[in-house]
Amino acid sequence: MSAPLGSVRAVIDAATCVLCGFAPPEVDADGIRRCPVCRWRLGDSPDPDLPPPRVEVVYYLRWEQRIKIGTTRQPRQRLAAIWHQELLAFEPGGRTLERARHEQFAHLRAGGEWFRADPELRAHAAAIAGDVPPWHRYARWVADALRGAVS
Ligand SMILES: [Zn+2]
After folding, report:
1. E strand or H helix that includes residue 129
2. CA of residue 21 to ligand 1 center, whole Å
3. Which of 75, 80, 67, 79 is nearest to 126 (CA)?
4. 24 CA to middle of ligand 1, Å?
5. What is the mean pLDDT of residues 52-75?
6. 60, 105, 109: which is closest to 85 by C-alpha?
7. Rounded distance from Cα 125 to ligand 1 centre (Å)
8. pLDDT in tens, 71-95
9. What distance in Å separates the CA atoms of residue 36 and residue 7, rounded to the nearest whole number?
10. 93: alpha, beta or left, given left = phi > 0 and alpha = psi -120 to 50?
11. What is the pLDDT of residues 108-130, one digit of tens each?
12. Bridge partners of 111?
């Protein structure tokens, strides 16, 4: 019996997180297997009867020497529709935060939601992003929102 169980376990271990797909779950300090990226627990599944969580983000997208600051609840669809070369950062927040950022960098405005990619704005985006890739950070927020919805 141990051989089949062992092989099943090996398959589970190799599988990436069911929620974000970025990494296989790892054993935490408390002995529970969680995704190292979004912290989703191995074996938990989102309740299909609940609506998907609404995670609003302000995004910073660079194209050449311009950075677009916008907001969305569907970053994958939204970003796919905007020409850009680099996603600099996600910041948790919606319209209110977006407006505040537009005012903060009004002196760099290049038209619409696009701003000059001056060192000041680049440094701001880099500080928000920290050393975590933006999509990893977003995955964590989604997992946190789902956990809030199920518990
Ligand atoms: Zn994950």
Report:
1. helix 119-129
2. 6
3. 67
4. 8
5. 95
6. 60
7. 24
8. 999 999 999 999 999 999 999 999 9
9. 23
10. left
11. 999 999 999 999 999 999 999 99
12. 114
